[in-house]
Give the backbone structure.
Amino acid sequence: MRILIVGGGTGGTIVANNLARRLSGEIRSGRVKIRMLSASDKHMYQPGLLYVAFGQMMPDELYRDQASLLESSIEFHVDPVDKFLLKENKVVTRSGKTYEYDILVMATGSRIVPESIPGMAEGAETFYSEAGAVKLFKKLREFEGGRIALVVGVPHKCPIAPVEAIFSLHDYLKARGIRDKCTIKYHYPIGRLHTIKEVATWVKPHFERMGIEHETLFNIKEVDTVNKVVHSEEGTASEYDLLIAIPPHRGMEIVEQNGLGEGGWIPTDRFKLTMTGHDNVYVVGDTTNLPVSKTGSAAHFEAEVIADNIASIVKIGSPVREYDGKVYCFIETGHDSATYAMFNYQNPPDLKEPNKPMHWFKMSYNKMYWTSVRGLL
């Protein structure tokens, strides 16, 4: 049984490591071979980018060598895939090599596309890349007061991040002693403060307490970098001195180029996590088109289901689990408190009041992530 995993992010790495341990006997006997193909030899802890933007982490803390996170029985190559030949059960890589498989796991992730909105790439700061997070931190260090606007593109991964950014921004400006010299305005594309109704209800009094202005039904049309105005599709506009954007996302270009899914999102069975029309192709994390948050926790829970099912197919010829839509999101509510949202397809989140212990739990998880991604937590 040849198992091929394309992508070395959270989901792909957890699938690979779980399978390597569950199928250790089959690997030793030669019945199973696990390969991973990745575009990079590095693995980034993406939630840490928000901390970089506010001076709480350094960029080098976000990375580990991908090979160091994988079980030794996994064959790992830095060789991005160029062609997916699903009918032939094989892929062709950039180096020209062909890899055949019996089971394929698609873990290609997503990318930011600020250039899809006129003026955003030039006129807005973001924390969704290392370079962007460092640049935003430097801008915040230099900021002496004025209008700060946060705008949200769609779709985007880590749906809680815009809310976390507002809490962190408020605390950061307070710590610098310039909060009273700043206005903060939050813009959101639907008719409430968050796509998850329970989060929208919970966050509203916190925004009021912090003096955060907000405008809903604000879908970004363009950024006028000369006059420092961001315009919405609805015909409204906001002036700014500092613009922070959550950029829209798409799936990876290779998915679009191979015609595997509109926008780079692969059509995925919400319970089986298989690609529509291809029962031997599993999809994990940001790559799916599922109506769940594109977060590391969703990728983690999906990866555990996929690993269980592939292992059971090898052992007994049948999958044993279904994915229930489970997501668990920490919500940083400033620099010393946090809460969380846990939900699935059937049950909405029940948010608790923020507290310090949850913040320290989140800070601890930032370190424990490397154990988690190895499938040990």
The chain is about 30% helix and 25% strand.
